[in-house]
Amino acid sequence: MAVEARKVWYRLVESSTGLAYRNTSASKVSVDFDADVADFRNAVQANWDKPGYLNDVPAGALNVYKNKEAFEKRNATEIKVEPLDDDYPVFDLGKSTKEALIVVVPSVSSNDEDEPMTKTRRIKEEVGKHFIEYLQTEIPTPSSFADHTEKKKCWAMFLPDKAPDMIISHRDPSEGPSVPVYLLSQIFQQFVDDLQDIQITSEDCLFVGTLTESMSGMFPTEQARTDTFIDLFEKYTGMTLKSMLIRHAKTDGSLTFGSGAIYCNLEVKVEKGTGGGDPYMQSIAYYLLSLPRTRIRTTQYPCFLLELYGTAFSVSGILNTDKHIICDPLCPTFQLYRNQEFVMMQQITKLFASLNKSLKILQHQEAYRVLSPPCSFPFLSSFSDRDTTLDFKIQYQKKIKGLVFSAIVQNTDNEVIIKFCSRYNENMHLYCHLRGFAPRLISHITFGNYIVVVMEKLKLRSLTKDDLSKSEIQEQIQLIAARLREGQYVHGDLRSCNILFEVVQNRVILLDFDWSGHHNVDVYPPFMNPVITWPETAKTGLPLLHEHDDYWLARLFSQ
Q1: Which of 439, 193, 191, 224 is nearest to 319 (CA)?
Q2: What are the pLDDT digits (tens) for 252-263?
Q3: Which tens digits make up the pLDDT trace of 182-192?
Q4: For 382-456, which CATH superfamily applies?
């Protein structure tokens, strides 16, 4: 007996803003009466599987909420509402436009032409490539921008209202994930690597001993602490941090390129909690205002931001790209106390030795005009093919999501995927590729804090309910599961978004071997997504087990 179908109303919304996705309105889709959320999601994806909409968005990436009220409580602090589980029945949902299910579409691209027409995009289209000039005109004075008591002028109001997704500071909840400055500029990558590897000298140790002894004391004014730090810093580095007048406000101390752009800025508060504002935000504003309008579209200006509030000292990195101003912390905050234990003093000394080295490199780069052009892609572009040992260069094409990019191998038409991740099981990827159910792994390298994976780009799509009902697909998936057990491997994240169909060779493919490992040996990583309904024993620090992959495959077939 055939299962009767019914219409379910829904609305597509954009994940970061909650506004209608690409100006779409309420729609309806036909599903069986016994359909669950997974079935509904597949139907929605199929309905919008066309260029410019959901053709590049896997059904598994869509989150579904019961109604608008539930969606609006997704970030509530008291009673947070989670998306519906895959197996939740939709029989009684979406009966009218007022009761429409909310389908949340992730922002999977950083290209302007691929973004929905939201407030963010409207402002971006108005200012276009002139977004830095726009920010320089609109931003309040640095002290007002940093001061939370200024209300409308404070960064907390300015960033979401006037500069959405333009200044990435990690303090505005509306901003999207960005590429770390560590991957965008070699000077920051070198600095972070030096924090571990640099060889310190007796001069470095003498400076830090004197600095910590001095900064531990009490200063009557902010200026007194500032002058003492600048004097010691100049004797150590040979560089003078000079106060700069920017829009009727003065920096505490800056180093500048010949163009006027700041490449090191110091902001000081006499003690913690004094001074009326956040020195981090104040420095961001000074940096932005110092950028020369005649060169900002041809030159990337990396800058070190130094914060000294009382004895607390930290270093951040900031730069301009063709789409954003991005600022990231480059190290933990250190306390410049006297008489600290050996390991802590050594870390502080490596910090200042690394900073001294990096600032001298920036001086040299400006003198010889070798600063890079602004770019939103990582600077790493050279790799070696693990099979042929031949070197090759890639040209980034598009940010897919997070730190995953599509690229083209130069001098060829070969498309590849570049992924930066914290861990990756190279051996399991190779094991799966040799057995025909993973893309070819072209390169796998360690780059600072990241593992960088280059793999072939395949033409993939999500598995549909019809696919999963076919015996040949079921046999492929069962064979994959058997091969994993034979090798004592566990994928660890066999959700539907990581089991896809390759349309050229008509085969099932596994992706994302970040968490993969050996059964009952390797363990799950920190910061597992709490929104996902994991197997009961799949938790941070606990071992990967075969039954966890079985759990995900059972859920896949239950769809």
Answers
A1: 191
A2: 999 999 889 999
A3: 999 999 999 99
A4: Phosphorylase Kinase; domain 1 (3.30.200.20)
